[in-house]
Queue: 4 jobs
Job 1
Amino acid sequence: MSTEWSAGYVTDVNYTFGYYGELNPLRCRLPLLTVGRHAPKIENACELGFGQGLSVSIHAAAQPGINWYGTDFNPSQAAFAAEMVRLSGAEAKLYDEAFAEFCNRKDLPDFDFIGLHGIWTWISDQNRHVLVDFIRRKLRPGGVLYISYNTLPGWSSSAPIRHLMKRHADVMGAPGQGVIGQTDAALNFIDQFLALDPLYAKVNPGAVERLKQVKAQDRKYLAHEYMNRDWHPMYFADVENWLGDAKVGFACSAHVLDNLYDLNMTPQQTEFMRDVSDVSLRETIRDFCMNQQFRRDYWVRGVRALVGHEQVAAMREERVVMTVAQADLPTKVRGVIGEATLNDDVYQPLFEILLDHKPHSVLELETHLASKSLHFGQLSSALTILLGLGVITTAAAAQDVSKAKARTLALNKTIARRSLSVGDIAYFASPITGGGITASRFAQLFWLSRQNGGKTAEDWASFAYQVLQGQGQAIIKDGATLQGEDNLTELRAQATHWGAHVLPIWNALGV
């Protein structure tokens, strides 16, 4: 692996094809408004270090009202993202430039939204200085910064395991192994070492359990997560010190369930937190209470608080849409310290109106709940929980949907055709949400069959079966490889379920 242009970052293998909803600028509005913070109108957006670029490709296709820019220094990943955008018919200016080069371009506009997912604690101080300077110069007043990063104290006990992995790869790994082979060798080495029962393992039993989880993860992900030269988990206050120079202030967690203290802390801890007036110290204490390993946060350049009537009025204009089937509606919500049952008196009236899978304004929902003698505070809390559970998401402006439909259809066809060979992309684009929705490989094949004239579950299953047969592939179910027509039987069952429970939602979401 050459370090001349990679700056110590893993480039031997491409990153996984993940989609991250927090990078959707339309989504940031509801979490901000719910905690009483002003949410800006987004016209120009930028994603730095976009990896394979699936998120930025989906957002560029599904959000015709937003001008997208971005960079990822891996040229193969940047080329893939640019090709996806081109095939969708969207326009986005995506580059394969290093941060120092991209961030000093003279042709960039000022941005209303800048996204940094999984970048901050995997780069050098030099690059962090570049990013802070960029945010200071190019994020508009009122603009939103989304940033995610590995956090202390959650990584305190497991960080030594990562050190051993990287150290083993550096001194014992053979160049011909490649980073995947080096990762596997390092994991095996650590397994053998921990079997010797070192005192570290006795003092940090959680780290041993963490290693078991790590070993089950995708090797490409692990290589990018653990095997870079730079890997620096940070306390919240450390990140705040860095970002202070960019004139941004913390607004709220993008993982909205983290904002609900009762789910994540004991009553005594919550009461203790209320007496801590300093935001930085309060967030740090929260991370200690939750043993936080990974933060996803929204920061704003010039955080503006909304007074009561302003907050309610702004929220009433937001639109949300349900993205799950009735059979998948939750009855409980789980936090760090336990779970809570969702109150039927509040949630059933909400489900009644949202189950048409059409966008509804918060004002519509409020009016409906008011007829059941429920107040706005209960609605606000319920929306936060449902957004955190992935039951609902924000909906794009109505005038943007028709413009986005042709582009998302083209992008989805491109993704689905890829599923004829591999199943590495598990998302489609929705013009209704302006973002991505989960779409497994078989679901994509069923959809593609339907696009090509397939009308029944039998048609869809037969199409998918022919694809598997042509590639000599078989379905693995409950750990066993299915044989012969057992694959077709399983596909029929999956196609029937897809047609009854998933397709109606996809149709409603414009997929």
Job 2
Amino acid sequence: MSRPAGREPRRPTRWWRRRSLRTRLTVIAATAIAVSVFVGFQVASELMDWELRDTAENQLRADSRVLATNAQRAGLTRVQLPPYPGSGRLVRVILPDGATRTPSGQPALPPVSEQAERVAQGASADLMESNDSDEGYLVYTLRAGDGAVQVAQVADDSPINQFGFGMLLIGLLCVAGGALVGRTVARTGLAPIDRLTAAAVRVAHTRELDADIPDEGGGEIRRLIRSINDMLAALRDSRRAQRLLAEDAAHELKTPLTSLRLNVELLIRLDRRGTLDSALPAESRTRLLNDVGAQVAELSTLAAELTDLARGDVSDENTELLDLADVVVAAATRARSRVPDIEVALDVTSVWVSGRPAALQRAVLNLIDNAGKWSPADQPVQVRLRAEGTSAVLEVDDAGPGIDAADVPRVFDRFYRAAGARALPGSGLGLSIVQRVVDAHGGRVTVARSERSGALLRVDLPAAAPPDPFPRLAPGEDTAAR
């Protein structure tokens, strides 16, 4: 049966996951050493057993040849068999009739096997065999005369056992030493991560982002520390930007709110006294209400621009392949609908870019609105769009007084308004939003003086290949609207 969904892992798995990285490295090091010692013991035991057995067999063959030579000289029945000395090799003579002779005092050997009888009968020259009894004899049978001689030795496992016991002690020492070394290596290797963790905990508790983590260690540790420092720097910049935005917003909201509050309080005070009509003639009341409406509109615009600027990204919309000419025409249409008195002259050609339509339209609209504030009533805002090399070039110029050289470096700063613009409506955020949108699209926005002595704002965006098939414009179809 399959394990039910959501069931917790088995206990060993849970135990392992709950251990620290230092403990895991220690366990892994000790386990690796234990496995290595075990494998080494097995290989060494096999080699040692093979070597001891080969030595014993060679010794039995040599002793058998000596006994066989003596038996052929003296005869199997008369060959001298010295008494058993109490230890060492065991011998036995197999006579042609199957009877056996052994030295006096020698322990009884296992019965002669069928294969050994065949050697005595001349079926084969010799035979090496091992007995599986409790004693564990290694017996070598060699053909001699009309019979055979046998030399046997008790299989002695004591060297292997002693070797195994020694390897066990060495293995335990190696495992303990490996665990200690693994613990030390883990502590040393993870020391930068411990300091990194402590720094992260300190930042989380104190909310202080000014202290960088010392760049130490190498390889992955150094890359991790640098990434954390980069993240802290980004957080510091974000916090600084938020603080500046809040301060600038409070400053910009103060003036319209104060004016709006004074106007509203004046209307309320006069209304309560019942002197609204006598104190404020119809013309003055209309002017005051218009001022209130303009101030509310200014606050609404400022709030919308602050919201857009504080979002931190250009837009949530996806990037798509679009014709920038369509975006420019749509922005000009919106500008004329918002300010009917504004006059916009379009000279645009089809240029394809990869971007976000709403964000680009907002940027173009801000450029047109900014130019419309400065253009005289009889001079249109000129908007030109063309392809230039690998870029889409958008130019918006007006016939106003232009931008002073001292104001050019700060023209794209948030809330910055030149001395001549402070009497005009606006928040000082429009061109800042333009720059942010253009930067997010990999472009560049610059300001210069136009041929009409006004301001010329130029936007360069990376052009993209048009979709295929692309409906080309016929000659004379370039959009030109006023």
Job 3
Amino acid sequence: MSDPKRLHPISIIFEFLSFLKQVIFPLVLWFFVFMRNDEKTGTLWDYAPWIGIGLVILFTTVLSIIKWSRYTYRVEDMELRIEHGLFIKKKRYIPFERIQSLDFSESILHRPFGLVKVNVETAGGNDKTAEAEMTAIDKEAAFALKRVIAEAKNTGNIALDETEIETKETVLYKITQRQLMFFASTSGRAGLVISAVLAFAAQFDELIPFDKIFKEMEQVVRAGYFIVGAIVFAALLLAWILSVIMTYLKYNDFTLKHTEDDFVITRGLLEKRTTTIPIRRIQAIRMIESPLRQPFGYASVVVEYAGGSSADEKTEGLIMPVIKKQAIASHLEDALVDYSFHVDFTPPPKRAKRRFYFVNLIQAAVVAAGLTIWLWPYGAIAIILIPLAWILGVFRYQSAGWNIKGDQLALRYRVLEQQTVLLRKNRMQSMDVTVNWFQNRADLATVSTAVMSGGNAGAGVTHIDKKDAEFIYKWYIPKEQIVNNEEPKKSE
């Protein structure tokens, strides 16, 4: 593979769409500004919007062809060498030892031609984007490239004949249609849909008559709160339906496979993605139980791992979208042998219980009072926030806990979702024990820790016994520090 190779010509279309995406809003604005002019002069100026659009399309097409023609890649001297650039040619040499994985994805434009998009993920790469991206190459060539890199990393030699490497794969998890529908309907992505719609509408604030719409809404509000409530309910229902459809398409046929050194995830209906997670890069395991799934005994499993990009909301770390919590250990314990999934948690002492909901009650009371005064009498319904805050505090107390088993620390806590995090001592970047004035009076403390995973992902548990917090800290600090009788660092 030492000869330079080009991407498939269909990459020109992807580059064209990428360029067009950057100018679409100014282009639409340009078009509507000229279309609003009702005066016809009978001159070429009347066709200005169409001429402008034509010139933009022509210019974008030329740029896309140039960018495609200047992009080449090859394998040479234990490196993946990429040359690219629109007007200034750039060279990027990526040593094999830095390459963590090649992640593949297939859109509806890739599949008819047997192509894939390849993202090159590296250790210490950018948290937002992949180290390199090949928008469209032949699927066989992509897998051959992956085999060559794997063989070179294992043997130190580049296998130019691209011989097949036998890789044993074991399917650890495959989502069922029933699980997928349950996951999609409880994903809580309706808020993202609403935010996306509002952000899109904001791009056209000069074209959409928001003032007129708001005036119409004033008439609707005067007509009655029942109508307003019905409109809000319909909007939320529509957002929920769209979120279910989006989640269903995104996670359809979700499959987790285990090879000798990696987790391989495939998912997607319209766009099929293949993501590789090196097991040695896993920093922590996170089991998440949302309020809608926990009553049914279901959880999601996410791994925090170093070297991956977070361009896709870090969904590459999601290895099990929805699974019975009691079945997690049987699926993962053979692949993740360093982790123990059977944990007995030590809860906070009973004297800490009221501290889990006291502050929440004060905050809820202030908000409820403000809404009641502002929107009286209908705002009085906000008083329901007070018992909800108390219930949430009780649940947080019941969820909190910690456990140490060998070199593993397990922390369990809740914000809204209950999260159980398993951490290995050698993967932890920091450990903090904090004690505020209220905790100090009751001999309580907060323990928090972080691992290096793109950003600083971590976990923490509040209001545990101060002696337990000191025990956890002494477990974490190096043994030579204990020998020297150095005290743990705590912030009061």
Job 4
Amino acid sequence: MPRAAREGRGGDSGIAHTDVKSRMREVHSPEQLKKLVEERLKDPDVAAWPNLVHVLKYPKNREFWFDIVMNPLDGDWYEERNPITLAENIDIPVYLQIDQGRGWTLDGHIELFNVLKGPKKLDIGSYPPMQSRPWIEEHDKMFRWYEYWLKGIDNGIMDEPAVSVFVEGSREVVTATQWPPKEIEYKSLYLRPRYKLSFEPEFMGAEYAAPDGFYQAPLTVTDKVEVLNWSTEPFEEPAELMGTGAAHLFAEIDQDDTNFILRLWDEAPGGGRQLITTGYLKASHRELDEERTAEGNPYHPHTRAVPVEPGRTQEYVLRLHPFAATFEPGHRLVAELSNNEPLVDAHNALLPPDAFHLPVGRPVTHKIYRDAVHPSRLVLPFTTATANGATRSGSSRDHEGDQLGCS
């Protein structure tokens, strides 16, 4: 969040103004730190953003953000501060509450819930993500929790399921002992020509199914964010999805790095949209930990950056953050790809100014291949009942159109 970095803030808490001192400034001499800063400024994404240049040049009162910008890779510096690691020592009762809407905020709560060893509960609420804090909507549950654990009042709260999930679309509340709250089966939605998503894979080669593409100039010279969209046909029956997902993109870029930002939307018949989940990947961080990667749940260690070979087509696997949604009949699933986040749209208008990922500081041309040799696709967690009777929306029409295209 460049705005927070500029102001030296940590979220809404203001913790970075005076209370947090830079560990980097403690560990390194001024001469060493100067060289490290010069090396960090070679990153064109950082160098193109004045807020971060200012943080690096003048870390006073921004020491919290100075350390973050100076440590772009995962490793020991973050691990010793990792709440998930620290949570292994927590055995007091913990009640976790989070709203859907951005995905990555939900991710940490689920990971924390799985690590905690003491009595615990997890409530996943409804969209949008930015509500009053602490959430007044949850006060009744909070009071019952405190009455039981602080006053010893047996109000039955611990007899209720540990996990409660609000499902977008159907607006149902599902309870269970774990996340995801239902059994799931991963199914693929393939990127197809004419900006379609289909349960059927593409059978034409790249010579007929030419790639989709876009050119993005740096946001220092334009305020327009280029976006590619692919969508399903309207669902004929409710389609329920819960869990994490993945996007497998076969892409070619003409620079040594870019961002891949994927957002999934539920689009209503009238055109109204609601964000369902997001996925982010810096191309140079594409490496996967194969031992920790599973279908629909890739794991990127982020411990080193490997520049991309310009002009080479390769597979990038994005992790789609946890979500729970039902696509009602007549609704479409829309996948939206860009390399920067749109500055203002149906979702970002809900967020504070500048609440986005660091933009790409170089001009990049992107080609997204989705043919028989390059099966770009979404791998999504359909609940078992939905998966077994999945509506193959538009698949016969797509096949017919492809046959016409071949002839």
